[in-house]
Design brief:
By secondary structure, this protein is α/β, with parallel strands linked by helices. It has two domains: 111 residues, Urease, subunit C, domain 1, CATH 2.30.40; 290 residues, TIM Barrel (Alpha-Beta Barrel). It is 40% helix and 20% strand. It is built from 15 helices and 18 strands. The strands form three sheets. Strands 1, 2, 3, 4, 5, 15, 16, 17 and 18 form a nine-stranded mixed β-sheet that branches.
Length: 434
């Protein structure tokens, strides 16, 4: 049992000052320090810092950890070129050892940034066993909660992709890991592949990129005579629990269909801006009642960065500084916790009895008063720009203490530079051969 004492509690809904939280794998008691009775637990004195739930990301690409600092010939003229010249070069050169190492490196970054749960969309040249390798590095060793899938695509062995998605679904650890059925995007999936997936995926929810770029939309209409979301719906792949990522270029009919089928949309504005593909109409999605959540698309390993960028990008999109307010951003944050809670079958994002003990302690002196009415504004404008929690707990286990990763996490990530260099060397040799 652990107790964090003398903390200001903020779970994006409520603010409480000088309080304590007692927990093991779940929160067992919360109250004011005036009612705290010391026991035999380990005590962490927060000294007036802010205790928050662990942050979450609803869509990411763990393997992108090995893209940081990578140099490849890169002169894209469109989104497909970005895939061809960068991401597809990287992922096909990942063997199982590199997959595991990228997972360990990414987990270290997530935890340093206070991210305790993720939904990953994986691709690699090594297919069989790749999700188990990620699960070992991220869930078993680093202690995070994570959902995994392999992004099925016609550029891979489709049978192997299907096999890997189904195999991992039998390995999930309730409350700690989860499985989805991964698809890359409409433009890289033929009808035969979608029919094969539809025949075997059972009740596994689909996790797919949708209408991220104008090219995806144009290719889908040219080849299949329909829109991206309507095409997936033809194969029964739009429904409750399914995760449609980006939806930058979805039209009115597609958004209505996503709402009618109960699908969730994961938006990734930082990635969209970086790739120059446009920005989704998040305000419109929320107005339609579409559950809209936030991811980083492998860009930052930081939910705080993405939360901060969401409102800025939406205001820029609509050319108005009040187009997307803090209340809108907060709604997406809470939607993300709700989606993750449903996916993992445990209450995330709240500081209350029986919620998961996924917590962080962040120092924030604040230059102005802070309280229940403005705590989220302090988070977005004051904490998020340089968010580095002092302590992080997942499932009650302390994985960051005084800014230092615990030994198993640090040891697993220690060899990542050498493994990344080996991948980059393979990329260089591939370029020479071509």
């Amino acid at each position: 049992m652990t107790a964090v004492v003398h903390a200001n509690l903020f779970d994006f809904i409520s603010w409480r000052e000088d309080a304590y939280v007692r927990f093991d794998d779940r929160i067992r008691a919360v109250g004011p320090m005036s009612e705290y009775v010391p026991g035999t637990e380990t005590v962490v004195d927060a000294r007036g810092a802010i205790l928050m739930p662990g942050l979450v990301l609803g869509h990411t690409h763990v393997y992108s950890a090995f893209a940081r600092g990578m140099s490849v010939p890169f002169a894209p003229q469109g989104f497909q070129d970005i895939l061809d010249q960068l991401w597809w070069k990287l992922d096909r050169n990942l063997d199982l050892e590199a997959v595991h190492a990228s997972g360990a490196a990414a987990a270290a970054d997530y935890l340093r940034n206070g991210v305790t749960a993720i939904v990953d969309h994986h691709a690699s040249g090594a297919i069989d066993g790749s999700l188990a390798a990620l699960g070992d590095a991220i869930v078993d060793v680093a202690g995070m909660r994570a959902a995994f899938c392999f992004e099925t695509s016609d550029r891979f062995d489709v049978d192997a992709c299907i096999r890997e998605n189904l195999a991992f679904s039998k390995r999930v650890r309730p409350g700690r890991s989860a499985a989805m059925f991964g698809l890359h995007a409409s433009m890289s999936l033929g009808d035969d592949t979608l029919r094969r997936v539809a025949a075997v995926r059972g009740d596994l929810p689909v996790h797919v990129h949708a209408a991220e770029s104008a090219e995806d939309v144009a290719m889908t209409r040219s080849r299949h005579g329909t829109s991206v979301v309507e095409r997936f719906d033809r194969f029964g792949m739009v429904g409750p629990g399914s995760l449609y990522v980006h939806c930058v270029h979805c039209d009115e009919r597609e958004l209505s269909l996503l709402k009618a089928r109960g699908a969730t949309v994961a938006v990734n504005p930082t990635s969209n801006m970086n790739n120059g593909v446009g920005l989704p109409d998040v305000a419109g999605m929320l107005a339609r009642g579409i559950p809209t959540i936030l991811g980083d698309d492998g860009m930052s390993a930081s939910a705080a960065v993405e939360i901060r960028a969401l409102g800025f990008s939406m205001n820029h999109r609509d050319g108005m500084p009040t187009a997307f307010g803090l209340a809108d951003t907060l709604r997406v944050v809470l939607n993300t916790y709700d989606f993750m809670s449903s996916l993992f079958g445990i209450r995330l994002g709240r500081i209350e009895p029986d919620a998961a003990a996924d917590l962080l302690v962040a120092d924030y002196p604040g230059p102005t008063p802070i309280g229940p009415r403005n705590a989220f504004g302090h988070f977005v404008f004051g904490m998020a720009p340089a968010f580095r929690p002092r302590h992080v707990f997942v499932n009650g286990r302390q994985v960051v203490a005084d800014f230092t990763l615990d030994d198993p996490v640090a040891a697993a990530a220690a060899g990542s530079r050498e493994k990344a260099q080996a991948v980059w060397d393979r990329l260089a040799r591939e370029g020479e051969q071509r």
